[in-house]
Structure formats: structure tokens, C-alpha cells
Amino acid sequence: MAAAKSTRPNPRVGYQCDVCGHQPAKWVGRCPECGEWGSVAERAQPVATAAGVGRALAARAPAQPARPIATYSVAPARARPTGVGELDRVLGGGLVPGTVVLLAGEPGVGKSTLLLDVAQQWAASGGGPALVVSGEESAGQVRLRAERIGALHDQLYLAAETDLATVLGQLDAVKPGLLVLDSVQTVSSPGADGVPGGVTQVRAVTAALVAVAKERGLSVFLVGHVTKDGNVAGPRVLEHLVDVVLHFEGDKHASLRMVRGLKNRFGPADEVGCFEMHERGITSLPDPSGLFLNRHQDPVPGTCVTVAMEGRRALVTEVQALIGAAMPGSPRRTVSGLDPARLAMVLAVVQRCRPQIRLHDHEVFAATVGGIRVLEPAADLACALAVASSALNLGIAADLVAIGEVGLTGEVRPVGAVPRRLAEAARLGFRFALVPPGAGAAAGSAPEGMRVREVSDLTRALQFAATLSAEPAPAAAQS
To answer: Which CATH class is domain 290-472?
Structure first.
């Protein structure tokens, strides 16, 4: 008698990249999505049956019936400040109970130092115990860093764990109000396949912590790695699972650090917080504009000041340019803190508007001061004035700011947030401003003590800058 054939469907065989989560139709040696070699592995995928789908769609009574939206209280969802002003600025006022925040950044930029300080501020302000779980360093190493930055408190707890079940056990024992997990790629779940840091493991660990955070009203910070391109490492679903995605960026050779919001369910998603890294740790910079300026007493050729927008914050920034010697062939174009493509365009426009300026066969060096990156088109006019002043050896007035995008025909195009930019420049003592046509009228009355000049093209901007440089500085500025 023939054996009865099994009715259980066999699982389908699929393939998935362990790095990015891409699922190709067949096995390949190199992932077509992220380009990693040897990352595609075979994964069993269960087949859904009609009976299974029917059971999944069966209705059941909800645990809490739906209520009119006006009957819900907003008190449990009030944001609580972390004690770190610049981080609260990016978060939209603080941490909402149950929030899961993913903080990503390059190795060594200061993520662990920042969150250790946040945990100490949370514990010291009476928010309840704070738990720091380190999966990359031993408890002794974290203790040394905490002592160096002054982050020691009786309500600040520390554990070194890499197992998700043990982390959940630590939560039951400490009952913290804030959890810092450093990092999510080092923790593994025993119920998930793959190696720690893989797509399946990262998804399982994050989903479990999100569920715990929502159930207990626990605020969670997850430290994440980044790829060589600067993107958040792991599957894209990781960014969808969490409530807030922050990117911690900065040059290791400079003291400036920036926390940039990429996603925020409870506040603005385009805000930026500024910090300064030093030997004693990391501190907030409520007024960072002074880091990006070299205040000169006299006009200096090759420098011009602009006002860049980082999120909703206006930062007064100095742009510097140097025209080097003539070089045969292809001269160098060295850029730091600016967009190289926009600089190449600005050089062509400057040479077209001022034929006596020869740039195509000269070396050009352009940079910003203080390590800030200015990639928006509003810095085009300042960059063009800095290049022209260096080529002509003409000093730009130290109290002049230039704001505007430069087109290929030399016209100055409008940019956004001009009133906010002018107000910040006036607050720092700048007396003159070059803006696109219509921007002065849109800004209403100019800030007190500032003379705003609308320029329609680069030629008029150069003429006004040259005229202004020839005027004597006021006695207050000379002193």
C-alpha cells in the first residue's frame, strides 16, 4: 500500500543578501544592490496556504476598543528633555516615552561619548535609572570613559552584553527609563538566523526592542554603524522600525560635531544640533557661528562670508579661495567643505564675467573655515567673490555677507530663508549684505544697522564689493 502523500507544502528556496537584505531571483556571487561579494545566501521561505491565509484574516475582539480621538490624553506623550540642549533641539524638545532613536555615524566620531553623557544627564535630572549596554567594549573601558567626561552617577547602570535575552533580563532587573544600546549590530537574538550584524539579526533585535519600548514606555537609543558611503548600515527596514533616525557627523581632525535629523515622528526632521569635542568629552554649542569665521580687521583678498542653512539654523560661514600658479595641462582643483561640481561651475562663470581673470590654467584652492560642509547653492555668490578677489588681489570688506545662487549666465538667483540669514549676520555685526533680486523686499525692512543691496548678476556684485572695499572702515571697526 502506497504511503499517504504529505499535504504540508514544501518551503520555497530563496536567496537574500546578508548585508542589505536584497532578495535576488537566483544565487549570485555579488549582490546587485549593494555590490558586496559572497553576501548572498540561501534562505528557506515558507509557502502560504489558503487555509493559513483564512486563519490569519479571521476577526477577533480587540483588547482595547477604538475611541474618539478627542478622548485620548496627550499627557503620556509629552516629550521629556534629555538635559543635552542641542540633542533636545534635534529631537523636537526631548524624548517621548516609548521612543526608539537610531544614532548612526562613522567610527570614532563620538557616538558613545555623546550617549554616555545623555545617560548621565538623564539619571542626574531625576528621570529614573539609565542603563547603558555595551556590546563593543568591556565594562571597564566604558567606566574609564565615563570617569574622563564626568559621567558617573548612582542611577547610571552599565552592563556589557551581546545576547538579546540577557539584555531583556537586565531591563527587568534595573527597570530604567532610558536604555542605550551600543551597538545594535553586536547584539544577537537566539531565535533568529544569521550572524550578529546580519540583516536577519539586526531586524529581529530592533523589532524586539521596539516592542519592549512601546509596552513599557521606555526611551531607547540604538547606536548604528554606517557603510563606506556614509549610509546607515543594515536593511532599510531598520530605519522604518525606529521612530527617530539621527546621523552623527564630523571631521576627526576638527572639534565640530553635528547631529542631523533624518527622520523624526515627533518633531522636525530637518534640524541640526552642533557640538564641540574636546578632551573632557563633548559639549553643546548653542551659538556655533564663531567657529566658522576668521574676523579680520582689514579686507583680505580671497575671503568672503556667507550664511548657510543647516536645517532651520543659520550659520555665518567664511569661504576662502586661493588662485595658485599657472600649470600646464590640467591644473589642480582642491576643495574642502564645498561642492567640487559647483566650484567648477563658479570658476567658469567668473572667468566669463571677468575675461581678465584667467582660471582655466591656474591652480585653485577653495575651503570653508572650521570644518563645516556647505553644499547648498546659496554659497555660490560668496565663493565667486572669494575667487575673483583672490585673482584680482582685491580685499572684500570684512563686514560684508553674500547670499545667492549663481547661474551659468552669471545671474544671481533667489534662495530661501533670506530674512533668517540676514538676521543672524546682523546679530554678529555685519553691516552690508548682497542678496538676489526681490530678496530684500521679501525680507521687509533690513535688520537694524545693516545695508542690504540687491544684485541681479555677478558683475554688479563684483562692482559693489570693489566699491565697498575702497570705502574707509568706521572708527568702531578700526579700533
So the answer is: alpha beta
